Fold this protein.
Amino acid sequence: MIVWSDDPDVEPTVIADRSPVSLARTMAVTIHEMLEDSDAYAGATEFLQSNPPPQDWVEPRDVDDWLEGLRDATPHPSFSFHQIPIAGGADGTNHGFVNRYLEQALQEREQALAEEPSPRIREEPPARTTLER
């Protein structure tokens, strides 16, 4: 998972996990906390008020339902999942491949942001939560 803002001075945060269930939950909790701390996204407050909080997510399906509900309720913050093969390196990670992949994903996101006007209500950058694995 990569969390970034439109602020060019703020480095993206990368979160990875071998378990897609754990990664989805971490992402959903991160987004939930970000939305709780900011009213920068249109529709987010209403979404949080009408959907269960993380402490009520019992099954992986609860997380999936929350993420899909968020996607339906508001276009931002946006999210997507991509599987990156990890093999090689002393820790099992092919660092060169992963770095190239992440750099490409960041460039694509920067291009997309430059092409689309932001629907934010105000000009402050979104709240960020840095999580460590």
Remarks:
- The beta strands are 2-3, 13-14.
- The chain has four helices and two strands.
- Residues 2-115 form one domain.
- The chain has one domain: 2-115.
